[in-house]
Amino acid sequence: MSGRLLPWTGADGKPCCLMGDGTGYVSRLADQIESVQLGMAAGLLDHAAELLAEQRLTGEELRFLAERLSESLTDVKRVAESRGHGSAGRARGRRAGHCSVGADVGLWHDAVMIISPIPPVVPAGYLAKLQQPVLALDGGLELRPWRVSDAGTLVAAGQEPTIRQWNRLVVTSLTEARKRIERMHERWQNEQSAIWAIAHPDGGQAVGLIGWGDIDLAGGSAEILYWILPAGRGRGVVVEATKRLSRWAFDDLGLHRLRLCHAVANQASCRVATKAGFSVEGTMRSALLHEDGWHDEHLHALIQGDI
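The structure assignment produced for this chain is given below.
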């Protein structure tokens, strides 16, 4: 008798196997976890490609990246084994990708559970079906999707000292910038992020970026990210854009909780968070690695009903 390898271990660290026909609650839960793990792996590969293309990583950053890639590869390997893509010549008496009863594993049964699963806050596939809107701002600018023709703005942002300091953005060529813009549209379809250009209306020049990253539709949350070139600063544009996108995230996408994180030393972003209505919830110690070392970060949040 054989079973499915589960994406978690028992209290003693031993692998867990599931016995059943693959239609029960535990099977569906395992499918959801594996889907998240594969999605995170894809996102990590994209992030790794971006970092390696910059060719400015320190030894500490490379080690951190290697550790995360190793963890992700372990998850992907286990998913492949669970789904029957392991080596056919693995342990005797065991089908590829399956556990054998009697092995040193924890045994689960895919019985019907009384507990009802918590429904997702936003159903999977909802964001991908939405057409990215153009959102007008009161100050005369607008939020619109990025275009390949905006590549020059990304290159300029990658060379601007303040943006590089706080956003860790390095873009050295138009080719690299165009690839980043293509990935923005791919990540919308993959429901990983939703990124807009802050631009002059009617096809005018982009002067900044704002959007939602780390989107978790099932959990109903996302984290805002932004930067703006010097030409767009000093008029409250980022505050207004943050408010507008927060309303879109709540009213149109249906999220419940929005995060804004920034280095403690970045007082400008702290002011943006406060003016946009995000409450400070605490300090995350040594949360993000910058060129000059690890930075503590403030965590601000806005929840459905705050605005």
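Interim note for the steering committee: The longest helix spans residues 25-54. Residues 85-98, 112-116 have pLDDT under 50 and may be disordered.
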